[in-house]
Amino acid sequence: MDTHVRTSTDLIKPGIDRVLMALYFILVLIGLFSIFAVEHRPGEDVWYNVLHLSKNYSRQLMWVCISLVLALGILLVDSKLFPALANLMYVFGILLLLLVLVAGKDIKGSHSWLVIGGFQFQPAEFTKLTTNLALAKYLSRLDVDFSTLRARLIAIGLILLPAAIIVMQSETGLALVYLSFFLVLYREGLPGIILIVGFSVIVLVLSALLVEKHILLMIFSVAAAFVIYFMRRSFRRHPERLFLILLIWGFCSVFVMQVVPYIFTHVLKPYQVSRINVMLGKEVSPKSSYNVLQSKIAIGSGGLFGKGYLKGTQTRYEFVPEQSTDFIFCTIGEDFGFIGSIGLLGLYLILLFRIIQVAERQRSTFSRVYAYGLASILFFHVAINIGMTTGLAPVIGIPLPWMSYGGSSMITFTMMLFILIRLDADRQKILR
Amino acid sequence: MAEFHQSRKNIIRLIFIGVFAVIAMRLFYLQVIETKYRQLANAQAIVRKLIYPTRGIIYDRHGRVVVNNTALYDLMVTPSEVKHLDTAFLCELLGIDTATFRERMEKIIIRNSRYRQSVFAELLPPDVYGRIEENLYQFPGFELVERPVRNYPYHAGAHIFGYIGEVDSATIRRSDGFYQAGDFIGKTGLERSYEDVLRGQRGVTYLVRDSRNRIQGSYAGGMYDTPAVAGKNLYLSLDIELQQLGEQLLQNKIGSIVAIDPNTGGILAMVSSPTYDPNELSGSERNKKFSRLFTNPELPLFNRPIQATYPPGSTFKPVDALIALHEGVITPQYGYDCRGVYLGCGRPIKCTESFPGHASNLYNAIAYSCNSYFSQVFRFIVDRERRPALGLAEWYRYVSDFGLGKKLGIDLPGEYSGYIPDTAHYNKIFGKGHWNSCTIVSLGIGQGEITETPLQLANVMCIIANHGYYYTPHVVDSVEGDPDFYRTHLVLHRITANVSDTDYDIVTRAMAAVVERGTATIAAIPGITICGKTGTAQNFTIINGKRVELKDHSLFAAFAPREHPKIAIAVVVENAGFGASWAAPIASLMIEKYLRDSIATDRLPLLKRISEANLIPEYILEKKRRIDSLNQVRDKLEARRIVAR
């Protein structure tokens, strides 16, 4: 340790990534102003509302302040604390999730909230952080070789355990977020074929839903026949290839004809099926399609340059439901148009690239894995959230990081980012 | 291992870029390429509200308001917002039964959708409005909306002012989007001919509403709003008290009065009888009242002063005299020895007077309205040329000059031209060369094919009073904010045949004699020299398929005072007998009222007698009784339906 007296500024300042900090503050400010735009009416006393916490924007400001206090705390603690506490926090998170199952409260159809002293808190948001820490901790252990099946299964287990409990809380959307950790696993050596197979399964599911089953079966059969015809010479030397092709053909057919219909009728809940159908354009469910239509109208009516700040009509006059939370992007779309939307998307992309850059300069596996985990989660949230407001993705109700109204999400994302900033500041010291 | 990580790092970046690119393209499509979302947003959030300007006010010649605006209320309904309605109570307040309620509601939903506001009951009578307003909070989805309607403080002049009504679909199509269904437009009278001036300019305001249809304020700070411009006021030459007197005199009679200021052509009064209170067609139950007026056999909606045409009868004689004097076929001293019948054409033409010397000169002939004299004079005119066709053509030219047989161009819609037969007319009936002055001799005494409107008759009086010119008759003197109106609308017409002042003086003197000692002494007013001419026109109608001769029309045309004429007047009372018996005293009272501003006490009994007389022919009264009893039955049935509820 150095001998001179350490002040808090000395502690925080050196090595802090200013780009990440700047991007964070910009996004938080955009978020606050967007929520303000939704709620503010001309002639209202803004300061009164701020002081009395009577509006979403004032409460969001409070959450930002709390987050900043926590962020300052994170910057002040020793970076070794995070790997040290990772497992404990993971267990704590799992316990919280289980507690929700028992003592949770139903809010808007999901059983995922804890009410503590008047504040609602969603542990499913918080466990993203603990899972990320635990995953980083596990993969950075010297005795773990990620190329072994056992290590891979344990890592996947770490990810899927909280996701499974969250599904039980009827928060499928937040559970799906945990799938983004597979990007981390891919980065750490999980074979690419798994991603490809996963992607293929998604394509298969989509085609099973969109195309008539028998037509799909014919397409598969014709494709298989073509492949067999062109590869017929190699079968003499490699008969197993014929077998493999037939196996794939058989799997695809069974999957499309039996598995997908079974999942849709027996596993998924009717509202989930409806949301997916609405997204695919197969069904016009009045409620879910109403939300998406209103969201598209708000964004679409913004045009190239937008209507101007506080001039949007759709986002300000309650046409878009869940305007401050899940559909906050509509405000940007309507008030600032295509230019503003692309600008916001660009900010998020710069943030993601910066996190990857930061990740790659880490000397410790823990920090790198942690950084990739953060990037993956952010990516998933941004892509799905904007995707659902523009009608590309089903409405699964996950917030836009730092912009959507909500304390749990604001605190979790802030803590996750500042832990990375803290780890990165000490990247020279941490080796593992 | 390092390369492997390097490539995976880049693949992850590629995934990020790829997904964001898809989102960016989607945004580009939604916000830049597809335009329907903007329209959808405007349709949802922006309300275009029309602001109706107040219609122009109409003033009479003394600045009295004769047509005004007042507010009545329409009961509007938005069906989708109607909840927990006490239907029975609302029906009770409105005085309708629940079946009618349901019927109206269904009609509204079919026509105008469940979500748009429509008129449920229009122009509520004040008492109904009061009751509903008190209880409106009990009827969610209902709203009272003010609607300006016309108001007529003097209850007179219905035919002049006309009425406004909902614009019809043909007009909407022709107006190129200016009028919308439900707009009001002038349908007849001044309301129609001055529609452009009176209606003003509609304003538009754009408002923002929220998802629950609550208005949130103006859109874009009112940047796209246009203010409404109030309609311009009209100032008439009409004297509303004179008009009222005219309507009083003609009540229970069928007929017309037209009074014109010969110095300007301005209409002073224009009565069409039977008439109706113009307020009836602007308040509640307008449609019902309109249909009652429409089916009334007395034709109260018919604007007789400009639409009814009558044979002028003896009122035509001054024109004959002017033509004959100017053509030189007679001198004022020319006399005809009439013994009560004209035999110059074989078949006898009766004369009302038979004492010797009643046609000893032109003055007497006009004063006593000698038929023989003017039959002879007319034959002189026609036979002056070699052939009667040429003579009649000459006569026709003169008569046209006097504004007969053509529209005068008054600023009211629906003017008729009357009819003056020309040579072609008789060639067609009798064949070319097969008729002569005797064939058409009745034209000389204003009978036969010749017809004119009361307006034309009054206008002829203007020409005589002015010694040879008239201004296009008009009701509107000036329009607010249009200083050029007077210049562009006051058109002078000079008679092309240059009849000399002497000739006019002769005829004027003769017409003065009519009132002094002739057929219309009843019209005389001490201190005012009236120049007039009585007329009695034969007329026929078809009753039960038979041509029946009805009682003669009573006509009188005059101007006064003789020295500086200020009023020219024509009065027609249908089926009332001699011109002197009804039309002349009516004209006299009108002249007195206009020139003296009041009726002398000793003439009030005359006023009373005329006002109370009922001269409507029996066959019309009979028809009217039938229709009235039918309407009574209808009203009773309706009343019973409401009680039965």
From TrEMBL, chain A:
Pfam families listed in its UniProt record: FTSW_RODA_SPOVE
Cell location: Membrane
GO cellular component labels: cell division site; plasma membrane
Highest taxon above the source species: Bacteria
GO biological processes: cell division; cell wall organization; peptidoglycan biosynthetic process; regulation of cell shape
GO molecular function: glycosyltransferase activity; lipid-linked peptidoglycan transporter activity
UniProt keyword terms in alphabetical order: Cell membrane, Cell shape, Cell wall biogenesis/degradation, Glycosyltransferase, Membrane, Peptidoglycan synthesis, Transferase, Transmembrane, Transmembrane helix
Membrane topology note: Multi-pass membrane protein
Transmembrane segments: 21-40, 60-77, 84-104, 149-168, 189-209, 215-231, 243-264, 336-357, 369-396, 402-423
InterPro entries in UniProt: Cell_cycle_FtsW-rel_CS (IPR018365), FtsW/RodA (IPR001182), RodA/MrdB (IPR011923)
Signal peptide bounds: none
NCBIfam families reported in the protein's UniProt record: rodA_shape, RodA_shape
Protein's name in the database: Cell wall polymerase
Automatic annotation (TrEMBL), chain B:
Annotated membrane topology: Single-pass membrane protein
Transmembrane domains' residue ranges: 12-30
Penicillin-binding protein transpeptidase domain: residues covered: 255-588
Main location, first listed in the record: membrane
A biological-process GO annotation: regulation of cell shape
Keyword terms of this UniProt record: Carboxypeptidase, Cell inner membrane, Cell membrane, Cell shape, Cell wall biogenesis/degradation, Hydrolase, Membrane, Peptidoglycan synthesis, Protease, Transmembrane, Transmembrane helix
Stated name of the protein: Penicillin-binding protein 2
